[in-house]
Design a protein that fits this description.
5 strands, about 20% strand, globular
């Protein structure tokens, strides 16, 4: 994988760390358009008491506001964990061009692990998906968060 993708994933990792610092499941996300970071978020489900406040959903909302468009054509998303079904659906609906994620989620991942919503031939949009970017670093953030809870 190209160093540029690792560079952007580092930004997503910083967002994950922000989430960890406020006791949220540490997943971070950024959205890039024309080589510029236009949105960033970390999970806020606990803070907002909202099960839909995943970092991907928050970043999509922010990017749509920035671009003043519901279509995020030409955008790339970098997220530290493979998106769930809800987030994968939002990625398809927003027409994000590229999805780069770090750790695979073998329990609820919906971009190739358990489901493959982002490349389902029955849907109106397919997203280019690249997994495993800085997967060790992305996995470690999650492991560090969950160890004391077990």
């Amino acid at each position: 994988m190209k160093p540029v993708h690792e560079k952007w994933m580092q930004y997503a990792l910083r967002e994950a760390e922000k989430g960890h610092s406020v006791k949220e499941v540490p997943v971070g996300c950024i959205i890039v358009f024309r080589d510029s970071l236009i949105a960033k978020a970390h999970n806020q489900t606990e803070i907002l008491k909202d099960p839909t406040a995943h970092c991907e959903m928050l970043a999509i909302t922010s990017a749509a506001e920035y671009l003043q468009s519901k279509k995020l054509t030409g955008c790339s998303m970098y997220v530290t964990l493979e998106p769930c079904a809800m987030c994968a659906g939002a990625i398809v609906l927003s027409k994000i061009e590229n999805l780069y994620f770090g750790a695979y989620d073998t329990k609820s991942g919906a971009s190739g692990s358990v489901l493959n919503i982002t490349n389902n031939k029955l849907l109106n949009h397919k997203c280019n998906v690249y997994g495993g970017i800085l997967d060790f670093e992305c996995s470690e953030v999650l492991k560090t968060f969950f160890i004391p809870k077990r």
